[in-house]
Write a structure and sequence with these properties.
519 residues, five-stranded mixed beta sheet, two-stranded antiparallel ribbon, alpha+beta
């Protein structure tokens, strides 16, 4: 509900601002409300479509655009419903295709770029039948006027979406902790971008001076160059600079066809620049995924070698260790009634021998498993596997194991057996340390976005949390489980950190790079 209330207020304000660029047959050649609509649908998903439609209807009713007492109120309501419906369907279709495609177009942020361009076009196509069959409803007659009207519709929505949606989504990520503050841009990159853009403006001025008009091709090429060189953020900043030059001119009184021509040129610049930047970011992310996969394959070979060595060593020590454990148990039994110091020493030897024997058995089971090559692994599937393995031990110790719901879109490139073993080791340590309390396993997303860089960096965090008691006796063990978990996580290109706070909460956090996903 707060999202929809905020959207209704933003839609009302943006709708009011758009009136400055109004025209015949379309509401505005700059429609910021479309940017708010796309941002909300992309952020929260098409499930909010009904709420968005209701919010827009209420705004149109409150401002008098829809008059319930007029004979054509039902047709006006239909005209309000069509654009958000088209936007929702495009977002749903793009997300569906991106989740199943295996091309660079499915790598973030290309899906958002495609949806941002496709949604305004789809909204205009939805309005096409009404324009052709019932021109009396739109007040536009004649094929030329209808084409101009629909073109103005598309141009206005494109400008609103491409100017507002990217920063709105970034601010939403920042507010939710999913994005870091932008890093300081590189001086050389800034200088190159400024020089290229300034040269394009100078070229336009020179062409106008010699009587060739003001073609915007130099600016379009400059923005495309900036996007391909420095990514989507840099191209968006260049787009804003271009819009800051053109929009004040078109807000002044001028002929409708001249205003439409300028806005069409601006829309072309925005589309080319934003898609170029999105493509550059997608390529950078795809290269990063390939590099991570290569590193994982190399680490996998190392793990296989280490596994073979460890299995050989464990095989050599398991038999004498089993004998030692049996003898230690026997020694403990025959010294129970002996001197207290002798009995305590025998009991300590028995416990340590039993712990070592248990550890060796676990390592033998672990070493005997087949290791696959790294594959895309949904974290939801991984956590389900961990829960199934860890629940019996937690139950036997009267510990409540809580697994928080996991976003199904979180996918890492990993070996499931290895990574599951690492998390199980951490859960087992937490179960032993909490003393009958609760252990929580949470998998979330954490990202970092840098301006001036040619890509986004995202990671998943798996946190195992438990409350510990400072006065609790130290549990038997040698800490090998954490060492094994750390080695596995680092072999997957991640990190393992352990922190505690004054409230007595211990957290073990695994950070892993996310596989490229739709943004």
């Amino acid at each position: 509900m707060p999202w929809l209330i905020g959207y209704a207020l933003a839609f009302w304000a943006a709708h009011h601002v758009a009136a400055e660029w109004g025209g015949n047959g379309y509401y505005s050649l700059l429609y910021p409300a479309a940017g708010f609509r796309m941002a909300l649908l992309w952020r929260r998903g098409p499930r909010l479509l009904v709420g968005i439609i209701v919010a827009e209807l209420l705004v149109q009713l409150a401002t008098g655009i829809i008059d319930p007492t007029s004979p054509g109120w039902a047709i006006a309501v239909t005209g309000v419903i069509r654009p958000p419906l088209a936007y929702g369907l495009v977002v749903l279709l793009v997300r569906h295709l991106a989740n199943r495609a295996q091309t660079s177009l499915s790598v973030a942020p290309m899906p958002l770029g495609l949806a941002s361009v496709g949604a305004p076009v789809a909204a205009a196509l939805f309005a096409l039948p009404w324009s052709l069959l019932r021109p009396d409803l739109t007040g536009v007659t004649g094929l030329r006027e209808i084409v101009a009207s629909l073109t103005g519709f598309v141009v206005g929505d494109l400008l609103g979406v491409l100017l507002l949606t990217p920063p709105l989504l970034w601010l939403a990520d920042l507010a939710s902790g999913g994005a870091a503050r932008p890093a300081r841009p590189r001086i050389a990159a800034m200088a190159e971008a400024v020089l290229v853009l300034a040269a394009s403006f100078a070229s336009e001025a020179m062409l106008a001076t010699i009587g060739l008009g003001t073609p915007h091709t130099p600016v379009l090429l400059a923005v495309a160059w900036i996007g391909l060189r420095f990514g989507r953020t840099a191209s968006w900043l260049a787009i804003v600079a271009v819009a800051a030059v053109i929009l004040p001119q078109t807000a002044m009184p001028m002929r409708a066809d001249a205003r439409l021509a300028l806005h069409m040129s601006l829309a072309s610049i925005l589309v080319v620049g934003y898609l170029a930047g999105s493509f550059a970011d997608a390529q950078a992310r795809a290269r990063g995924d390939l590099q991570r996969r290569d590193r994982l394959l190399f680490q996998a070979e190392r793990l296989k070698t280490l596994r073979a060595m460890s299995v050989a060593v464990i095989h050599e020590i398991s038999q004498p260790l089993s004998t030692l454990a049996i003898e230690a148990r026997h020694l403990h039994e025959i010294t129970v009634s002996a001197d207290l110091e002798i009995a305590s020493t025998a009991a300590l030897i028995d416990r340590k021998a039993a712990a070592l024997s248990t550890l060796v058995r676990r390592l033998r089971r672990f070493g005997g498993r087949i290791v696959d090559e790294p594959t895309p692994l949904p974290l939801a599937t991984l956590i389900e596997t961990v829960a199934a393995l860890a629940h019996p031990e937690a139950k036997s110790r009267n510990v409540r194991l809580t697994i928080e719901p996991v976003d199904p879109d979180l996918v890492v490139l990993a070996q499931e057996v290895e990574l599951a073993q690492a998390i199980v080791n951490l859960v087992r340590n937490a179960v032993q340390a909490c003393g009958g309390g609760e252990v929580t396993v949470v998998a979330t997303r954490s990202g970092a976005v840098g301006i001036g860089a040619s890509g986004d960096s995202n990671e998943a965090r798996i946190t195992v949390a438990n409350r510990y008691r400072a006065d609790r006796a130290q549990q038997p063990g040698m800490g090998v489980g954490v060492l094994v978990a750390r080695a596995i996580v680092e072999a997957h290109g991640g990190t393992l950190t352990r922190t505690s706070d004054a409230a007595g909460m211990m957290r073990a956090t695994i950070s892993l790079p996310l596989l490229g996903e739709p943004e």
